[in-house]
Amino acid sequence: MSAQNKLCLALDVDTFEDAKALIDSLQSSVGMFKVGKQLFTRVGPKIVDYIQSKGSEVFLDLKFHDIPSTVRKAAYAVSDMGVALFNVHAMGGKDMMEGAAQGIQDAESSKSKVLGVTVLTSMDQETLSKDLKVNDSVEKYVIHLAKLAKFSGLNGVVASPHEIKLIREHCGKDFLIVTPGIRPEWANKGDQKRIMTPKQAIEAGADYIVIGRPITKADDPVIAAEKILQEMA
Fold this sequence. Notes:
Largest sheet: 8 strands, parallel, barrel
Radius of gyration: 17 Å
Oligomer: single chain
Strand order of the largest sheet: 1-2-3-4-5-6-7-8
């Protein structure tokens, strides 16, 4: 897979027009666009349709976390849209993740793949221990959730680049790993805590890396994207 196809741009903007401008200018540099809660809540499925009309893939990042039957129906609806990737919170448990996998099967001809979100890259050991009362280390808990996701029929996980090698060891080479928390050395790390550079993440074995602000907030997003592609390659 080329560096371009591994690069997923997070469209964390408020309007269809802002998203459209980024898509139009970056479609030759970026293989996939991530649509999250912020943009999807404001503009809905039409942004998915627009990305697909330009020949690009969509990662619909809505992180479903609900009762199994609701997640199954949501997964069916998303799969019917033809997105390449979407996700659920692995913390929702085995039955819920099985519901998500079944939702894709219900859609029959769907090409969509579903990922389990492990531990958010904005969280660190202190957050996991104090706020969530999880006694495991971040690494052990991520591996537990990744193995549970695979056992439940999911295609892969969303995880920090710091856990890529461990996930590969426990879940195999065909298990997809999508990594946010990617920051080039020249970029501000923002609210991310467990981060790596694009080069480090690719070398560790990430299938896709997700980058937002280092590109979207750059003076010239196209130049920023090209710099990242060069580093990845």
